[in-house]
Design brief:
Blueprint: H1 6-18, H2 24-48
């Protein structure tokens, strides 16, 4: 059903019961901030790693090796 498993449904139900309607918007805001922070961190780490052309194992392997 919509790609949602039983675990996800149980998690949603648990969150609804554990958080009051007054606390839910604040919790969702915090979750959004966390997701943004993780995305920024991932982007920074990816930028530090360089592009794919910098990796020697990714270069063209059709060229014969000199012996």
């Amino acid at each position: 059903m919509f790609g949602i498993g039983l675990g996800e449904i149980l998690l949603i139900v648990a969150v609804i019961f554990l958080l009051s309607p007054r606390d839910l918007p604040r919790a969702m805001r915090k979750l959004g901030q966390l997701v943004r922070a993780v995305a920024r961190f991932r982007e920074e780490v990816t930028d530090l790693g360089g592009g794919r052309e910098d990796r020697p194992e990714e270069k063209d392997h059709d060229e014969p090796k000199e012996s």
